[in-house]
Amino acid sequence: MDSFNSKPQQSWPFEGLTPPFAGEESSSLVSAFNPSEFFIPGWKGEGLITASAIVIKNSLSNLTIDAQALFKKSCSSSKSMKLQTYNEFMHFAEYANIDKSLLGQQNDFWLHVQDETSPLKKHIDDFLKVHCFRAVAIYLFRIKFIMDLAKEQRLVVSEDVLMNPLSFLGRIFVKDSSTELMCDSLQINQYSWYRPTMEYKDSLVKLKDAFENVTLTELIKLISTPKDDKIYSIRNYSHSLSHLTFGLLVNDLLLKFPAWLKPEQKKKSFSDQKLCLLPKTINTRFAGNNVSSMALSHWLAQESSIKLSQWNNLICPEFEGAEFIDGQFLKICQELQFLSFLTRVGAEHKYEIIPFICKIMREKYKHSPDDGIGQASFFNLGELPSSDTLYNRIVLNLTELPKTNPHHFLIQQILAQKPMMKKDAIVYVFTNQKLFVPSHSDRVEQLLKDFKVEAQLNMEELKGKGEIAHFAYILTRRTVDVVLNKHLFNVNRKAKESCLSFEFKGNLTRFNKFNKLVEELQTFMKNKNPVTTPIFVTEIEKDIHFEFHQDAIMDGKLVSSVGNHDSSHLPHPSFFKNLTKSSTSLDTFFNIELIAHEDLSISKKSVSSELLGLKFGPEKQYPLLLIINQNDPMDVKLELTPIDAYRGKLEQYGTAFHSYFGLVPKHPSINLNVFREYFSSVLGHQIIQLQLSDGPSKLKAKLKSLLVPNFFASTQLMPNNIKSHFNILDLEAEDMKNLHPEEIKAKFNAMKSHMQTHSKDFPWHLLGLLSHFKLQMNGMVESLEDGKPQSFNFSNSLIGSELVKLKTHAIYPKNDDVYVEYKIRNNQELQLPMTSLVIKNTEDTSILIFKFQEKEIIHLHSTPVMIHFIKFVLQNATGVKVADILLNLKVPTAHDLIQTTKSFEDLKATRIALLKETEELIAVILRTEVSR
To answer: How many whole angstroms from its chain centre is CA 256?
Structure first.
């Protein structure tokens, strides 16, 4: 492990010893030594203790002995101090599982402290060892702050200053002035009682030089805990969470991710930066498990960034873990460290250091987004007014979950952050518990009423990451919608929200490779847009992958099938990777513009302007219309049609759940059927749901970036000798109606035999032919679905071959199946020529009307099938005398005719089967080209 705090995997201890060869006589060996040549690749020896740290460590040990001698006297001098110390011991007792039945009141504790024969003596001694150590550690942090401040402000630090640091700070940060410092950690607390005795006055001077050379992170290591403390040493310390790279990851999520997610907010705040060069304070709370480890990684990351040219934002951290381990002591230490850090930032960036520190701390203790009044000064030796601090960011590390109902625990911990959040606050939850569990969707829905999940980071399949959580969820607080009118009708419909999904997979053979993941995430946020990037996948190095895609949340469930093992399914890793390589965006083929609703009214009102060429309606501007149907958030559909249908579609669909876009093709040879087929295909449907399923927000940008296969732009036509194999796909519906089902099957199967040979070379042309064939076949199937006689094609060879075999009967003078009704005044009118035939349907029968011009001559009454058959027979009899038609017309019986037309069921089944095969061929071409 190459963490800052990791112990080298060799034989010498972690602290206090020098590297190999340090004591050798050969100076050449010493100068040539480089830890990175001998140890874990990437490790540069940060974990080795320095000479300055040894000085501080020795002083820490000596002062702890001094503190133990002063404890009883100092802590018993104040009632508030006695109470705070008692409360601290109760936290210790709970942590160490000590029986607290003997400690009902604080006086009981102090009696046991004085009693040498107390049954709690060993526990009290253990507590005092840690407690006094902590009091000295906090004292040293105050000294560190004073030394850093004095160095930059060129102030003289005498022995008296080291003996009484608060008095010195009181003269710099003056109460009730513009330089008043608001800081909890410098208030009276259970650790503030310690002041060194006079015998240590001279030894404190040595600390001045040591503090100038020791780093903040090294100081944190030294004060973490007494090395020989057996009780306290059982703390669960995490080397991976304390690593620099994890700190960089968290910092990027805290600072860069919100600006990347909401780029429009970044633009608005840019103008403000011109007015104020000081960075904005980002008040941040770190809580949960392993908070001390996270604190170290935070400071490592901050130190690595301190020399950046400009800081727009400054993380103002507050670390608060579970008492007794990472509670008040850690919180106080880290705030004092933050003051030292602010001193360094002010010096590095040429700020006026004291006003800068005061400004940052004042903003930290601002209790509401609109409240600019801070807390009272800490130099009055009183307590700060009790008020809840509000945060811009909250980081929860919840890796230690209860065995019973961990999901409920996770939800409750997130909801508990709501009262502490500012209006624009964001919560980052690191946990090993999946948030989106289908069986707990109701519970998640309750959470989503107050929070919106903006993104999730999945590292479940990343091996070698140590104690870093499997999942990280980024949540924002929902704003309350303003109700304009309580009488307005609100449509209750299912809401589908976007959720950005990041995933790291692979095996970290060394933990320092985690830095490559952080760098990849930084590069991605720098170069990719969260709205217009539907899918991204890259191989960081062998066996380490980074993936991104836009997910959605509905009904408390994550609407994705990442676990689907079908290799043709979108989220499958191999298909996911190929899709990003073989696709382009829709705006590669079309110029896309939103047709606003007012465009229609403008085009109606400004006819004179249109005549002058000043204004044009959508019909004049765009040749094509694309409609996005979001009526069902689980099934978003695209409809591509000529622009002439715009007004009719607008009247039919309305504007509540439909959006209208005008398209102008960028290429001269665009086959619209290819795009229509793609939009309705399984692949296209998945991509549409991925990119357009979260409502109307930024719909135009998302539509422009809609993934479309690259080969749609390769408009290569087949030569005629090859195209002849696919002639059946080019037939119109009317031509196919006259073909026998067996003939259609034979030609279609012959075409399929050539498909595999030529589909790789001419996928675009073949897809266009298949789309045309499907369109024609679909129309015929729909006409056969209704079973109406007018859909029967009596000229089809399937029926024609059977009709010629039927026995026929004259309709005159009498036919049992056909009744002749005369509409004439005399027999001479039967000699008039027939000019037209009209079918009129009634409830029981159908009527065929023979007309001479507008005059009705006779009515034939029969079954619908018979009437349509007679009209088919007489379709070329226009101009023949009506009398001659009556005398010569012969028809089969109605029974025989119905039995014969049942053959259409075979024709229908054949066309349905061909339609299904066509859809499969289209899917194969799309899948093959995308996976190539």
So the answer is: 15
Round to whole Å and give the CA distance between 338 and 332.
Answer: 10
Distance CA 416, CA 547 (A): 32
Residue 859 sits at φ, ψ, to 5 deg, of -115, 130
In this prediction, residue 560 has a pLDDT band, given cuts at 50, 70 and 90, of: low
Please provide residue 529's backbone torsions phi and psi, each rounded to the nearest 5 degrees.
-100, 135
CA-to-CA dists, residue 644 to 167, 199, 641, 650, 719, angstroms: 83, 97, 8, 11, 34
Burial of 108 (0-12, 13-18, 19+ CB in 10 A): middle
Q: Is the pLDDT of residue 499 over 70?
A: yes
CA distances from 653 to 604, 625, 645, 650 (A): 19, 14, 12, 5
CB-based burial label for 172 (10 Å; 0-12, 13-18, 19+) = middle
Cβ proximity of 42 and 510 under 8 Å: yes
Three-state SS annotation for 617-653: CHHHHCCEEEEEECCCCCCCEEEEEEHHHHHHHHHHH
Determine how β-strand 421-431 pairs with β-strand 391-398: parallel
Nearest to 288 by CA among 438, 422, 472, 134: 472
Q: Which helix (H) or strand (E) holds 474?
A: strand 471-477
Q: Which pTM value belongs to this model?
A: 0.74
Please give the single-letter amino acid code of residue 798.
Answer: L
Helix (H) or strand (E) holding 167: helix 165-172
Strand partners, 475: 427, 453
Residue 40 and residue 21: Cα distance in Å, rounded? 18
> Tell me: the pLDDT tens digits for 598-635?
555 545 544 444 444 444 567 778 889 999 998 887 78
pLDDT band for 13, please (50, 70, 90 cuts).
very low
Long-range contacts at 885-890 (CB < 8 A, ≥ 24 apart): 885/834, 885/850, 886/811, 886/812, 886/820, 886/830, 886/858, 887/810, 887/812, 889/810, 889/811, 889/812, 890/808, 890/809, 890/810, 890/811
143-147, 244-248, 335-339, 362-366: the lowest-pLDDT one: 362-366
Query: How do strand 497-507 and strand 451-458 relate by DSSP bridges?
Result: parallel
- Position with higher pLDDT, 482 vs 661: 661
Mean pLDDT of the chain: 80
Locate tokens 């959006």: which residue? 659
Q: For position 27, what pLDDT does the model report?
A: 42
Query: Strands, DSSP E only, in 776-921?
Result: 809-810, 819-822, 836-841, 846-852, 855-862, 890-891
Residue-level pLDDT at 115? 85
Backbone torsions φ then ψ of 182, nearest 5 degrees: -105, 115
696 vs 506: which has the higher pLDDT: 506
DSSP β-ladder status, 280-288 and 391-398: parallel
Burial level of 893, CB count in 10 A (0-12/13-18/19+)?
A: middle
For the four alpha carbons of 906, 910, 916 and 919, in that order, the dihedral sign comes to negative
Angle, helices 904-931 vs 763-785, to 10°: value is: 150
pLDDT of residue 480: 65
* pLDDT tens digits, one per residue of 208-250: 788 888 876 777 777 765 555 555 554 567 888 988 999 999 9
Distance CA 300, CA 554 (A): 39
Number of H helices, E strands in the chain: 35, 23
Percent of the chain scoring above 70 in pLDDT = 80
pLDDT the model gives residue 29: 44
Q: pLDDT-derived band of residue 48, with 50, 70 and 90 as boundaries?
A: low
Is the backbone of residue 621 left (phi > 0), alpha (psi -120 to 50) or beta? alpha
- Tell me which H or E stretch contains 260: helix 257-261
> Which token pair is 661?
């876009």
Residue 111 CB neighbours (<10 A): 13
DSSP secondary-structure letter at 255? I
Element (H, E) at 216: helix 216-223
